[in-house]
């Protein structure tokens, strides 16, 4: 019998959603609606067990569940509720065996809480880990890609009961084809992808992501506006900056919301200015041409008054903010990792320098 | 044209008489539990102080806290059922999610999900099933609902299905009132639905309130029409307030900002309204408040109807000072300032005492107290106000700060590097704001740009829809101005989707209104 790392009830889910927004690095969609959906599944009494990968046998089938598409659509058209059971049934048929546990593929943003809906519906545990350690905009940007694991077979279901499965030649192709189908399905759909057995992800899973999200949420609840310093010191990160937002510039390029946020220093940072660049997520923090941090390290904006994470799509002029830098999982700092999520992939013409946490 | 503006606040009810664009006279009277007798007294006093005869008044504009109070106190709410047009989508998150339990109990918490709704591009999720809708209504009615609200997925993109369902229900049940969500909220189904439910639950109260103000008008001998002021600083008539009371929820801060802009002659400014317990800061652009872009929490429920973007802090004239800790507020003696404040002979050190000791204000019956760290406390007060003002700014642009309200004496001459202006009659700014309210039309929708529909054409179309809405609500066509246009590109989706919002305002046409 597995001993859960965490038994997640409604208050714990709230903390995970809050922590998920911090790990979202400004993007990944607001976990709010996803949290409410998971709460509806949990009701008053149910809990979801978060378990360690170590407690699963090598041949246990693990299925990541996520929402793919535009977070904006999720604000209007909520899932029917039977997408996930349909996904899981389809994947079990394709894989020829039963799913033993649910996995969170993206611990940042909306997808930090979506797997809890699946776990509550199917009475399955969730593995304490993910494959990004944060939020990224495309589905091939996972540690599993580096480990040579395939996103397919993958299944996608919409609210009407339409389902599709994918068999592709690369994870990049899966992204392209699946993205196209989400549009036809009304802009958002539920997906089950990267079916894996426990034995193949022991080295490439980013372990502890959900308990980390929970801990972050707990620290914010406890410390409010002072949480940034505590988060930085207890998570091996650094408070990059403290100041007031003095300009927000936004533009649409392709299917991405890009732009920058200029922050004027306050307190110890008075007289200095920092510019954060974003593409859905914050990707760079630059001071006078010098990079303080870049992707894949996490750059998160925190409301200095409340400790609440501030997403790129709602950051406003005048807000007093702290900029939290957190180191990404070491796997992303390899040449292979930087090739798919490093600064140059996003068009930022600098070499990656690991976050200075000294 | 002679207008009377009335603001019913928590403590005082204010009334002003305006001739055209000039302030004639104003008066204050304590707010009464029945509300209307306080309003009646204030209007009578204001008229008496003016040279205006009762029969010369052309219109009365009311701003009232009736509805928000009913919701906060969970009183006078009617059992409401919500029908959501969404199936097969939507069951994963049902209505009343995240509401406080006592409020759900007060309203009944009943809902039905039925076929319908639209995708973001206007395709049907499912066709409307008339039998399903009528069956749902019959069931909700049998369970005790006297009011029905309707929501539909993406009804902000296409509103016809919601309207068809509402027409169907009205035809089958002439006794039932129906709220359609698109008339109230914006994108965000759950929040829009919440606003629609709250609106339905408040409707019967709105009918009572309109009737009470009608009696007040008759008692005063007024024969002119009565209007209510909306959250966005514009007017609705009594027929519409009976239908859409939720639109008047946040009129207090709006009227204060509009009044401050009018009294100072400054159309672009920050407004700081300081009362006994809080300081509320907002921004006026072209004389209208900047609206909140995201959801707004009212009585612990998330909604998304248009509300001014107001930042509040617990600092007012009655805020209690902890001199040892160097802290001011958020606890306040509130209404008891006039007995508890040191300058009024009491023994509680308040922010007003600090202001008097620092020479910023003259008030009270007793000398200012000796305060050891006076400079430190004044600096703390300035820091608090500076911070809230800075948070309310949307650009580095220099703009004046208008200080209004009884507690505005706390403010120094400069805040966050900006000059502070205290307009004449600043303590009646709310009632003045009510008196000068205009009529608006507002449309907000997602548009997919194509080869045949470029951005400018799309915005022009939405602007025309907003102008039509304003005229149909009583604006004079010749006075229409476009108040705001915003278009936000939607990420993740190809095909250039724009969320376009347009608000058009105009003067009230008293011939047709």
Automatic annotation (TrEMBL), chain B:
InterPro entries: ATPase_NBD (IPR043129), Hydant_A_N (IPR008040), Hydantoinase_A (IPR002821), Oxoprolinase-like (IPR045079). It comes from the Bacteria. One of its GO terms (molecular function) is hydrolase activity. It holds the Pfam family Hydantoinase_A. Residues 192-361 form the Hydantoinase A/oxoprolinase domain. Residues 3-171 form the Hydantoinase/oxoprolinase N-terminal domain. SUPFAM superfamilies: Actin-like ATPase domain. This is Hydantoinase/oxoprolinase family protein. The lineage of its organism: Bacteria, Pseudomonadati, Pseudomonadota, Alphaproteobacteria, Rhodobacterales.
